[in-house]
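Obj: model holo form, ligand = thiamine diphosphate.
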Amino acid sequence: MSKSSAAQPEAGRPSPVAERFACLCELERKVLWLSSWTIHNANHLRPSRDGLKVGGHQASSASLATLMTALYFNVLRPQDRVAVKPHASPVFHAIQYLLGRQSRDQLERFRAYGGAQSYPSRTKDGDDVDFSTGSVGLGVAMTTFASLAQDYLRLKGWAPEGLPEGRMVALVGDAELDEGNVYEALFEGWKHDLRNVWWVIDYNRQSLDAVVSDRLFGRFDQMFTNFGWRVVTIKYGKRLEAVFARPGGAALRQWIDDCPNSLYSALVFKGGAAWRKQLEADIGAEPGVGALLADRDDPALAALMTNLGGHDMAAVLEAFHAIEDDRPTCFIAYTIKGLGLPFAGHKDNHAGLMNPDQMAEFQRRNQIPEGAEWDRFAGLDLPEATLRDFLDAVPFAAQGTRRYAAAPVAVPRNFPRPTAPNSNGGTLSTQDGFGRIMTELARGDGALAERIVTTSPDVTVSTNLGGWVNRRGIFDRHPREDVFKEQKVVSAQRWGMSPAGQHIELGIAENNLFILLAALGLSHSLFGTRLLPVGTLYDPFIQRGLDALNYACYQDARFMVVGTPSGITLGPEGGAHQSISTPLIGMAQDGLASFEPAYVDELSAIMAWAFDYMQRDDRGATGSGTAWLRDAAGGSIYLRLSTRPLAQPPRELSAARAEEVIAGGYWLRPPAPGAELAIVYCGAVAAEALAAHQEILDDLPGAGLLAVTSADRLNAGWHAAEQARRSGPAEGSRDNLAAIERLLGPLAPDAALITVIDGHPATLSWLGAVRGHSVQALGVEHFGQSGDLADLYRHYHIDTEAILDACAAACLSRVR
Ligand SMILES: Cc1ncc(C[n+]2csc(CCOP(=O)(O)OP(=O)(O)O)c2C)c(N)n1
Ligand SMILES: [Mg+2]
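Output (holo structure tokens):
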């Protein structure tokens, strides 16, 4: 199909333009071959050891072969960044292979352990993936926020010298547009006067299960236009357009425009004879149409009818190169899912794979000799030297690696340590403490504060970021005064906006928050400048954005997310906002170190450590216990905070104690050696735990009170130590104990643990497995009831009484 869309070289020596064009058409064929072969090899030629389907998407890949060839080999520049439609991963890897940046070994191990990934992955693929994709819709939105991150740096003059502004390009499956997060990003992009974004829609009118509704697409043009985007429709190929200009052409064009998606797809699958029959029946009587049909045999008619814009190299190049400004642009490229493959257009082709016979025929058509399947140039009509020269000059590949590193930003030794003001009766909540730490950082002029960028989905003030914003201002491409301030309306908030601002205010869409954090948190790698993003939201809404949070972590973006208020402890503010499962999310989320401190000095120690941890990048560190904790490799941070004011312990946190806080826990009241009972608490229920502990001391003077600041890190450290011991004596010496093993060491072997958290009790109940202690686990398993803390803690059995009851029950069972 592609060969016939090539421009005819001029007589004699082809012009450089014609030659480049011919190379592109040849490479387009090669890309389609290699992507199809890579999938075929994985499914049919690699022995299966488990009987599981390997999969891969030959049809979805074919759909993008022309567009991606045009982009990567001609249109893109090194500074451009791309989110590739997840199931076009084989096309991406084939392109990188042709550019010499992907190995044959990796292609042969497509979807196998250590091989090229099923979906493009920044962290697991070795061939320069810009944005991971996989969960449809998220990569699309990522381009919006990456553009915003790029603007943020450039408007502050922080872009490294010599690094030009890039375009953020999404290759979008048309069914991805069903995902709501795409529109959330579209809205947000408009608010921020989005620039330099291209969304190239692979409009094959098919999704996984079905053919896309005809009525839908009429809406898209208008919608993008409403948001200030330019819409470029690449509907017809050059050959179809030429035919439209001839007698019968207008009727043919009208017929195509009116043809339902399902019928068009079915005819694509059935081929030339079916096209002829249908066209004769529908428009055969129109003047000129008879001759138009008679001029072509069935294969030529099928080739004409599938000459849609997204498969016509000339049409595609023309559309892309016509854009010279930075206005966001949506290309609607008409394509055919599976074009060139035996199941083209078939509605069930999403997971379709060519069988060995079909592949043999495809190989024959591509003129690939047996044994030369991985050859970069086999079966192409242009001389190898011409193609090599072309590949060597591809602009996108001109600068080699496109991953940057940025110098770390030091965390000052005098990191803010707010104390409880007397006006609060000596009490402070962790949320308030967080706000004070941020405000104090904002007052200083250090490098750390300069590189912090905060963001929040419309809960900036209610998560205590107001003080920071008042000092550091809101980021906006255009300077704008705070009208309320100008009008002398008294307000605690000063919301002046300018390019110098350091807070990005978002609308209420948690997906956007996490995708923005992903983009800002990759700025060192994407744009060569380190940013330290801090995002705040109400803790329960972590669940609203969870897939996007997971997406951000999977890409190894570095950020701090603050969930506050949390649990039932937000009290009268309402049952619907209570979070139960977030502590478990924090423990289970890969790439996220989670903390839930009770006191502000703990929070301060955690945040100081966290800003450093967010910048660590020692990928070589493996095998040891701390590697499991990612202490060398670093990661992102989740702080689960509370609005409950607590009396702060009168103490100066020692360095050793701070280390324990970061490791995940410490004895607030150490147990006597051989103690029979310990109360273990996490977070805002510290007050109840303290009160209960005080009461049981009469009966159990040796009882301990264990503060857990990070169930996540205690748990991860324990698993790491267990794994190390299983791995052999070098790692597994008895001295190589996890923090929690050491902490629980002084207790009697048959001691009881009473655990309590405002969250799911499983967060702490595993502690019993560490040394075989019995556990009474208190926590919250149901939610939805508002009230004050006395009522709620009683109702959900996490008050002092409940802790004492659990202590009594534990003692009774020891006696029995
Ligand atoms: C969030 C999410 N839901 C479901 C899937 C499974 N899935 C993968 S591709 C696909 C259909 C995509 O269709 P389209 O975007 O039109 O791409 P095409 O295959 O037509 O190129 C679905 C539902 C997914 N990857 N992500
Ligand atoms: Mg589709």
